[in-house]
Each structure stands twice: as structure tokens, then as C-alpha cells.
Specification:
Rossmann fold, globular, alpha/beta, 4-stranded antiparallel beta sheet, 4 domains
């Protein structure tokens, strides 16, 4: 029987997962014969937290036209359209921001952001660099060929607002800031949505008005899109009106530009525009539209740029269809995106002119015409000091708490003095909004006064369960702030959501050794995933002295998470500093510890770490270069997917057998050839990889298998390398 033809992997979404808690266990719901060709690439809590379900993405490599296998749990919903919201990553514990990515015209909610090598930066890269953000996709049916939909831009935007409102309510994130990312039509949707949310002030819409930290636009057609070919496609179809809206200088686009500037000009925007033309659409021989026509600039630079003062602009040597398929490396813009996002989170002054407004907030008529710092304080004073006494739970007193919180978030020295004078005249015990936590983060000089005035130490943040002591662990720079909270009765073992204690926050986010020392009594606290502060320090912290402080205080160096991960596993995968791994090993970390996937730290580092130093440290300490995980992959095979070719060389230098086969009979050389990794192919051949035995079957160089995205020139170079190596090997054999 002839072997079936392999196709490239397809990505599916699984929702309503209730029976598993790990990626490994999810695969067990499928028949064994499919599992080797399935990879669970993400597993995250679903949008609706009340259901206590999870959402996953799975990569599946079909044989021929093979359908996706049916899971044994029939309640699981499987689809590949990705309509609505899809959570790709949800942090444990405190979530600072939601990042929402909206695809473009006729785009796929997942595929629009995925490279030809199956890397999807929002899922595979961003969680490591922005670990405090929940990352979601939003998909919608914007097909224009064979579509009966009469939806126009306003319809897409209205539908988004309804789903956005429901998503935030169901995931308890109504007060969480948002960062929007859009591609093409998705950029116009973002503008329409924000204009809509920012143009009204009534109780029905107030609860969904988000604080927007920043926006990233990929190929945004602010002044129009090249639609000549698309007009021919949709002539006489229901999609004709939508395409007409996208033409240059259309009334719809002019309205969007004017409205967006009025409500949003003060927020940071990253504009990424294309610098290469895109192949146009034309009718092919099979009577189907194909993108192989003359190249055209789909979005000209002048159309993609807003020309605002707070706009950062990056031109990419990509066409319109590939501009959002971001990859790492100096040829792309991933590092620029990360820096922009990190700056958005660092600054407390990034809030848009459309802050979240609670449905119980003061009516606009009760506020001054401007709600800046200078005008909020008189309103607070007028309602708290000059009015008759009110019941403890009165509406006015709760509103004072909210206004006070807003002032604290914006305030510094002068406002702090005003607030001190205010709180000295009355109690804060019943004010809503947890001003104490905000003071810890934004205005620590006010903490003592708030405590004396009766601020509630046990008040918890919405959606995070964090108290002031947790916020201190994350943000405090002076240990005196933490000590004030302890003196008032704060508990070093207080638990937030996901069972984080304050030291978890300090080890994860705060590079302050003094704060870690103050919280050190909880050194071996476990989160609900079994993670200790040492796990977080090994993963996120760049200061070896903080890791050492935890170790010196008695942290369990070989603590296993629920999935069998030790701190050394975390350091090997995420932390690029060899000294972090070395400190753990010196403290007694088991260098060949196995997680539930039977992977050692070296196996994980070979695949994910870009640091040759990390690899050397693990090998020197006794990391087994021939170890294999439950799937039969060795460090050498896994290193092929690493972007740093020197990782492979380090393993070979350490004695990794170049012809070792995985359980399917393939060698590292096979995978290097298939992925088009020319440098790695050369290195493997130099270290003795046999070009005649790259798999269980003999394969002639002319029949080498390449993934479809490997360019023809690279294929020819690799074939040449294999031809020469084969001749040398055969010559040695004859001698």
C-alpha cells in the first residue's frame, strides 16, 4: 500500500473542554493513531469563567483529505473558522491588560497572524515577552467571494461591540485596560468601535467603555485600499457595498478619520505599513480567483499613516497579505512591537480619553466640564466634606471612592498633598474602588494616611483577587511601604486569584531585592498550578541575586509544578541568562529532571532557548544529549526548530549522535532539510550526518521533501549540499 501524501498542519480550535487540565491529557481524548500528528499549541481558560471550561488550539497534520478526529468527550466543540473570541494565553494571577487582535478582509482569525513556518507570534512569542497580558483573537466572516452577507463596516463593528461587552462581563474583565491590534479591515473596525464607544455617555454603554492603552495598526487603509480587482470579483454580489466603502477617500473612511481623531488622538499608536506590492487577484484557468496578477500597492504609505504626534511608524519589506505574519529576528518588527507594548504597560499615563466608566458613576451633569486633575478634587471635596453625613453604603460615598482612585492613579506630589488633607477629615473605610491598592502602586507617600483613615486592607481587585499587599509585591520600590501594610495587619501568605502570594508577584514582576527579602517568609508557597516564587524568578527575573535570595531562604530547588516542571525547566526555556541556570544547578537542581512529557531541561532548552550559554551550562552539569522525550525526540532533533543554528552545533560538539532517529525513523538532517535550514544542514553534515540515511527510507537528493514555504533557491542549495555529501560518503564506502 502506497504511503499517503503528507500535507501541512492545519490549526483547529477546541472549546468547552471540561475533562482535562493539561495539554498532554487533552491528546488522550483522541484515538492513539492520530496523536503523533497532533500538537496542542495552546490551552487557556475559556471566555466564560462561570462554565469553568478551557479553549485550546491544536495543530493537526492530516494524511491526504483526512478529517479532524472526533474527541471522546462529545461536549467539546471543534471548528477551524475561529469566529468570535479565542483566548490564546491567560496569565496565572494578576492580568494587567487584554490584547485583542482583529483580522482583516477575508482573513482568517488565526492564519492572518501565522507565518509559513507555522509560527504564530501572538501565541508562540508574545506570552513570553508580555507575560502579564491575556491575548485574544477576534474572528468574523468577512468573505467576499461566494458570500451572501450584506454586512458593511458598521455591521461588523456593531457585532463586535455586543460580543466584546459579553466577553468582558463573562470573564470578569470589565475594568481591565485593552490594547487593540488590527490588520487591514480590522484596523477600520477598531476605529469604528472606539468612535462608537467614545461618542456616547449613557448607562447602557458606560460599562463597556474600555481604557485603551494603545493601538497597533498593520496595513491600515485609513484613506483607502486598492480595490480595482476586488470590484470585479464582487460586481453584482451582496459584498459590493462593503468594497465600495473601502475605495480611496470614500465618505465612510473620511467619517472614520474625523471621528477617530476627535476621541482618540492622545493615545499612542504603532503604525506598521507595507513597502512591497501585493500580487493582484485575477481569474485563473480553473475559473477561480487567484492571487497571481500584476503586483499593486494595496495600501499606499500615505493611506496607512495617520500623521499624528503620538504615532510611531515602521515600514516593512512585506506585502499586504504578509505584513501581520510577524516573525522574530532583525529583519522583522517583532522586537519593536514588544518594546511598544512594554512601554504601554509601564507608563501610567497611557490611558485613552475614553476611560472605563462604571454604570453607577456620577451623571455627567454632576461633574465639571473637564475631568482633569484640577477639577476632580473640588468635586470630591464638595461631595464629602461640605455635604451632610450619609449612610455608609450611600451612592455618593461610593462615587467618592471611585473619583479618589482616579486622582491617585493620575496624581503625584501636589495631588497627594490635597488627598492627605481630604482623608484626614473623614474615614475611607467604606469607599469603593480600593484606593489603598492604587496608592501603593501610584502614590506610596499616601499609604500611611489612608491606613490611618481606615482604608480596607482586605479589599480585593476585580478580576484578580489581589489585595494591597499583593500590589506591593508587584510594584513597591521601598520596603517601608510593605512594612506599613504588615504593621496594619497584612498577611505575607495572603492568597490572590490562582493562589498567588505577594512573593509570587515580587519574584515575577518586581526586580527589587529589598521587597523580596521583606516577603521571604512565603518562599515555598505554591500557586494552584504548583508554581513557587522560585519558578517565577527562574522564568522572568533577570537578577541572579533575587534568585539566590530565594534559594538562601530555603526555596525548594527541585519543586515540581502540577505538570512536573522544576525551576530549572523554566529557566532553560524562558530565561536567556546562563547564570540563572548555573545558580539553580549549584543549589542542587536535578539537571535531568523529567516533566510529565518526560522532557529534561536540556530538551526544552534545545527547542526554545536562544542562548548557547544556557545549553553549555546544562551539558557541563551532566545534561544528557541523547535523552528523548515521550514523543521520541532528542535535543538534537528539537534544536532544528530553534532559530539559533549554533544550538545544534553546541549539541553536536558535546557528542550528540548526528544520525539518531526519532520514533518515526527521521533524523535531525531530515528535519533540517524539510524546514529549509541550510546552515543547520551544513553543520550536521560536517559532524558526520549520513545523507543516505536521513529516514527509514532511502531518499535520493532530487526527491528530498521540503515544506512548501521553502524558497526554490534554498532548496537547490540544500540539494547541492546533499549531493556533495553523498558523493563523499559513497567514495569513503568504496575505499
Amino acid at each position: 500500500m502506497a504511503a499517503s501524501t503528507r500535507h501541512k498542519p492545519l490549526v483547529y480550535r477546541l472549546e468547552e473542554i471540561t475533562t482535562v487540565e493539561s495539554k498532554e491529557n487533552l491528546l488522550l481524548l483522541f484515538p492513539p493513531k492520530f496523536r503523533d500528528r497532533m500538537t496542542v499549541t495552546s490551552l487557556s481558560p475559556s471566555i466564560n469563567l462561570n462554565r469553568r471550561t478551557s479553549t485550546a488550539t491544536i495543530s493537526f497534520l492530516p494524511l491526504s483529505e483526512e478529517p479532524f478526529p472526533t474527541p471522546s468527550d462529545l461536549d467539546i466543540c471543534v471548528d477551524k473558522d475561529f469566529y468570535g473570541f479565542t483566548p490564546l494565553y491567560t496569565p496565572e494571577g494578576h492580568i494587567e491588560v487584554d490584547i485583542i487582535a482583529i483580522t482583516g478582509l477575508a482573513g482568517h482569525a488565526f492564519g492572518s497572524w501565522s507565518t509559513a513556518t507555522q509560527r504564530m507570534w501572538l501565541r508562540d512569542f508574545l506570552p513570553r515577552d508580555i507575560p502579564q497580558a491575556r491575548i485574544l483573537l477576534y474572528g468574523y466572516d468577512s468573505r467576499i467571494v461566494n458570500s451572501q452577507s450584506r454586512s458593511i463596516l458598521a455591521d461588523f463593528s456593531s457585532n463586535f461591540i455586543v460580543k466584546f461587552n459579553a466577553m468582558r462581563a463573562q470573564s470578569l474583565s470589565e475594568n481591565r485596560p485593552v490594547i487593540f491590534i488590527g490588520h487591514s479591515l480590522g484596523c477600520l473596525m477598531i476605529k469604528e468601535v472606539l468612535i462608537d464607544l467614545g461618542s456616547y455617555f449613557d448607562h447602557r454603554r458606560a460599562s463597556i467603555r474600555p481604557t485603551v492603552r494603545s493601538v497597533i495598526f498593520f496595513g491600515a487603509p485609513h484613506r483607502g485600499l486598492e480595490i480595482t480587482a476586488m470590484q470585479s470579483m464582487v460586481q453584482g454580489t451582496p459584498s459590493e457595498d462593503l468594497i465600495r466603502e473601502l475605495r480611496m477617500r470614500s465618505p465612510t473612511l473620511e467619517r472614520l478619520n474625523d471621528g477617530f481623531r476627535r476621541v482618540f488622538e492622545d493615545v499612542d499608536i504603532l503604525t506598521i505599513f507595507e513597502m512591497e506590492p501585493t500580487a493582484s487577484l485575477r481569474m485563473g484557468e480553473s475559473n477561480a480567483w487567484e492571487r497571481n496578477g500584476p503586483p499593486v500597492m494595496m495600501v499606499e504609505k500615505d493611506s496607512a499613516i495617520l500623521y499624528w504626534s503620538k504615532e510611531t511608524r515602521i515600514g516593512l519589506n512585506q506585502d499586504h497579505s504578509r505584513i501581520a505574519k510577524v516573525d522574530r529576528g532583525q529583519n522583522g518588527c517583532y522586537d519593536d512591537i514588544c518594546h511598544f507594548l512594554q512601554q504601554s504597560l509601564i507608563s501610567t499615563d497611557k490611558a485613552s480619553t475614553m476611560p472605563i466608566v462604571n454604570t453607577r458613576a456620577l451623571p455627567r451633569s454632576a461633574l465639571p466640564s473637564s475631568t482633569g486633575k484640577a477639577n476632580i478634587m473640588p468635586t470630591v471635596k464638595a461631595r464629602s466634606l461640605d455635604s451632610p453625613a450619609l449612610p455608609a453604603s450611600s451612592k455618593s460615598e461610593l462615587d467618592i471612592g471611585r473619583e479618589l482612585c482616579e486622582v491617585i492613579k493620575k496624581g503625584r506630589s501636589q495631588n497627594a498633598r490635597d488627598l492627605v488633607r481630604l482623608v484626614e477629615k473623614g474615614s475611607l473605610a467604606n469607599l469603593n474602588g480600593n484606593p489603598l491598592s492604587l496608592a501603593v502602586q501610584h502614590c506610596p507617600e499616601l499609604v500611611s494616611t489612608l491606613l490611618d483613615a481606615g482604608a480596607d486592607l482586605s479589599a480585593r481587585g476585580e478580576g484578580t483577587g489581589s489585595q494591597a499587599i499583593h500590589i506591593a509585591g508587584q510594584y513597591a520600590k521601598n520596603p517601608d511601604t510593605v512594612q506599613l501594610l504588615f504593621n496594619a495587619g497584612a498577611d505575607v501568605n495572603a492568597r490572590a486569584d490562582a493562589d498567588w502570594v505577594p512573593l509570587h508577584y515580587a519574584a515575577c514582576y518586581n526586580n527589587n531585592l529589598q521587597i523580596v527579602h521583606v516577603l521571604i517568609d512565603a518562599v515555598n508557597a505554591h500557586s494552584n498550578y504548583g508554581l513557587t516564587p522560585l519558578h517565577f524568578a527562574a522564568r522572568y527575573n533577570q537578577k541572579p541575586e533575587i534568585l539566590q535570595a530565594l534559594i538562601d531562604a530555603g526555596a525548594t530547588v527541585n519543586a515540581h509544578s502540577n505538570y512536573g516542571l522544576t525551576p530549572l525547566h523554566f529557566a532553560a526555556e524562558y530565561n536567556q541568562k546562563p547564570e540563572i541556570c548555573q545558580a539553580l544547578i549549584d543549589a542542587g537542581a536535578t539537571v535531568n529532571a523529567l516533566n510529565k512529557d518526560e522532557a529534561t531541561p536540556l530538551l526544552i532548552a534545545a527547542q526554545f532557548s536562544s542562548s548557547e550559554g544556557v545549553i553549555r551550562v546544562l551539558i557541563k552539569a551532566g545534561g544528557e544529549v541523547e535523552a528523548t522525550n515521550v514523543h521520541g525526540y532528542s535535543p538534537l532533533v528539537l534544536s532544528i526548530s530553534n532559530e539559533n543554528p549554533e544550538i545544534c552545533c553546541e549539541l553536536l560538539t558535546a557528542g550528540a549522535y548526528p544520525n539518531q532517529k526519532d520514533k518515526d525513523g527521521y533524523t535531525a538532517l531530515y528535519w533540517a532539510i524539510r524546514k529549509g535550514e541550510k546552515v543547520v544542514t551544513r553543520r550536521l553534515l560536517e559532524f558526520g550526518a549520513d545523507p543516505r540515511a536521513i529516514s527509514r527510507w532511502a531518499v535520493a537528493p532530487k526527491n528530498l521533501h521540503f515544506d512548501e514555504e521553502v524558497p526554490p533557491a534554498t532548496r537547490n542549495e540544500i540539494r547541492d549540499l546533499i549531493n556533495k555529501a553523498t558523493r563523499r560518503a559513497e567514495g569513503r564506502a568504496q575505499v
